[in-house]
Design a protein that fits this description.
Blueprint lengths: L3 H20 L5 H13 L5 H10 L6 H13 L3 E6 L3 E6 L7 E5 L5 E4 L3 H12 L10 E4 L13
Parallel strand pairs: 3-5
Antiparallel strand pairs: 1-2, 3-4
Length: 156
C-alpha cells in the first residue's frame, strides 16, 4: 500500500522524467535518488543538509551534483527555493503541498508553516489596488522566540 508521500513522490518522479526528456537532458540515478530523498524525508533543508543526508545513507554524490540537481528541480517546478534572512537559502518540495507561509524564529531558526485563508483576501486586495492579477505569494514573518525552553533564545 502506498502512503500519500510515496504517491506524491511518484508524481514528482514522472514530472522529472518528462522535464528531463523535453529539455534533452540525461536521466541519472543520482537525480532520482536526490529527488526521492527530498520527497520522502525532508521538509525545509539547505543543500549541505541534503548532501550530508545522502552520504549518511550511502548514496554517493558530489556537492556539485546536489547543487545542480536542486537547480534543475527548481526549474522543473518540483522544488521551491527560499532566501530566508541573512543569506539562508532553503528548499522545500513543491508538489503535494498547499499554499502556505512561513514564520521563522530569529533566535533558533525554527520554521513554522501556517495557512491563513485571509492571506488570499489580502493578496487579491493588493492585486486590485495595483491593477494586477496575483498568481502566488510568499510571506515570511521573522519573530523572536518567546518559548521559555528555547535553547537559542536571546537573553535580554
Amino acid at each position: 500500500m502506498n502512503t500519500p508521500a510515496q504517491e506524491v513522490y511518484r508524481t514528482a518522479e514522472t514530472a522529472l522524467k518528462t522535464y528531463i526528456r523535453t529539455q534533452g537532458l540525461r536521466e541519472t540515478r543520482e537525480r532520482y535518488a536526490i529527488l526521492k530523498e527530498i520527497y520522502l524525508n525532508l521538509e525545509h533543508f539547505d543543500a549541505e543538509q541534503l548532501y550530508n543526508q545522502l552520504l549518511a545513507q550511502g548514496i554517493k554524490v558530489s556537492r556539485a551534483t546536489v547543487y545542480n540537481a536542486l537547480q534543475l528541480f527548481v526549474e522543473a517546478g518540483l522544488v521551491r527555493r527560499y532566501l530566508f534572512g541573512e543569506g539562508r537559502m532553503l528548499y522545500e518540495r513543491s508538489l503535494g503541498r498547499q499554499q502556505h507561509d512561513h514564520l521563522i524564529c530569529v533566535d533558533c531558526g525554527a520554521i513554522e508553516e501556517f495557512c491563513d485563508p485571509q492571506m488570499g483576501l489580502v493578496t487579491e486586495s493588493v492585486g486590485r489596488l495595483f491593477h494586477m492579477r496575483p498568481e502566488r505569494h510568499d510571506l515570511v514573518i521573522y519573530a523572536a522566540c518567546e518559548k521559555p525552553n528555547c535553547p537559542n533564545r536571546k537573553i535580554p
